[in-house]
Write a structure and sequence with these properties.
The complex is a heterodimer. Chain A is mainly alpha-helical. Chain A contains seven helices and no strands. In chain A, helix 2 packs across helix 4, helix 3 packs antiparallel against helix 7 and helix 6 packs antiparallel against helix 7. Chain A starts with a helix and ends with a helix. By secondary structure, chain B is mostly helical. Classes of the chains: A mainly alpha, B mainly alpha.
């Protein structure tokens, strides 16, 4: 079922256009990388603060609220630039274990962010003991994992 | 310059790195992750200077609190980038995007030093306020554009078939 869905994606006229158009893939990959940098920065500023590092003189919830929109919009940019790459190389992605590991962590990372991380970052500081550190550490770990697997799709698949 | 690249290319340690199955993916992956640490933090510093974000954070807080992490990322980035170059010097020697990236990094570095030693000296005057001087905002915009271009040219290095025609005519890599 999933395989036929990926075969369907690979057979779309858009996928063929992506592969035939010389500059389409490079431009989209460059935009994806720039969006990744914006996303990583927004995540790191808050995660480091959760770990008790970085901008410690600024209240955590103020920082988290400010970075929230940058994180969301850069993730949207990552999705918009990532989807065409998946479409045009759908079967390569399907047979790559790194793609599936990446997607699993992306889903877990998003759920984690919009539930636990957001709750901890927006909470009154000092009321959660060591949980902010645990959350910051897990968040950095998950998004690093996503970047590593994303890179390995292209290199080892 | 070419003979230097050729000399490195023939070194046993360069050949060993080039022929290792795991070295290239490992170095490139660490290069990308450390780029996120460095460029990600620098991007928000630049955007603070431009006035796009973190406007309630005193400007001077960012270099003190974030730069050690950004510089750690930059250090790892330089080491892995250096190793990638060391392992395949002749692949990069004829690559337009490699040289463009080096020039852009140099200009970004000059912009950073110029900002630090000229504009940033007066930071106490505009640290807490929202009105950032024009010079500082300009330095932020220039830095944002340059580092984005460094990221783009770095990615484009993989597309050796998409180099400008005038560059191909120079026959540098031949």
């Amino acid at each position: 079922m999933l395989q036929s869905f990926f075969q369907w994606m690979q057979g779309l006229p858009f996928s063929a256009w992506m592969l035939e158009e010389t500059w389409a893939s490079p431009i989209i990959q460059c935009a994806h990388l720039v969006a990744l940098v914006a996303f990583a920065g927004a995540v790191l500023v808050v995660d480091m603060r959760l770990l008790g590092r970085g901008l410690i003189k600024t209240p955590l919830n103020q920082l988290a609220r400010e970075m929230d929109r940058w994180m969301i919009w850069s993730f949207v940019a990552l999705f918009v630039t990532g989807a065409p790459q998946v479409l045009s190389t759908a079967l390569k992605q399907y047979y790559s274990p790194f793609f599936w590991w990446k997607m699993q962590i992306v889903i877990i990372g998003l759920l984690f962010n919009f539930t636990i991380r957001r709750r901890v970052a927006f909470a009154e500081e000092g009321s959660l003991g060591h949980w902010p550190k645990v959350v910051g550490f897990l968040s950095i770990g998950m998004w690093t994992g996503v970047s590593v697997y994303a890179r390995l799709i292209g290199l080892l698949s | 310059m070419r003979s230097l690249f050729e000399w490195v290319d023939a070194l046993p340690s360069s050949i060993a790195l080039r022929e290792s199955l795991n070295a290239y993916p490992t170095m490139l992956t660490i290069h990308v992750v450390s780029m996120c640490l460095f460029a990600g933090l620098i991007a928000y510093w630049d955007m603070r200077l431009v006035g796009l974000t973190l406007r309630r954070v005193p400007v001077s807080n960012i270099p003190t609190r974030l730069f050690p992490w950004a510089l750690t990322g930059y250090g790892i980035n330089l080491i892995t980038g250096g190793l990638l170059l060391y392992s395949q010097p002749m692949r990069y020697y004829g690559n337009f995007y490699f040289w463009a990236k080096m020039v852009l990094m140099l200009i970004a570095g000059i912009n950073m030093f110029w900002f630090h030693y000229a504009t940033y000296k007066s930071v106490q005057a505009w640290d807490q306020g929202r009105e950032i001087p024009l010079n500082a905002r300009l330095a932020g915009v220039v830095s944002l554009v340059l580092w984005a271009a460094v990221v783009v040219t770095g990615r484009m290095m993989a597309y050796s078939g998409l180099m400008p025609q005038w560059w191909n005519n120079l026959n540098i890599g031949a």
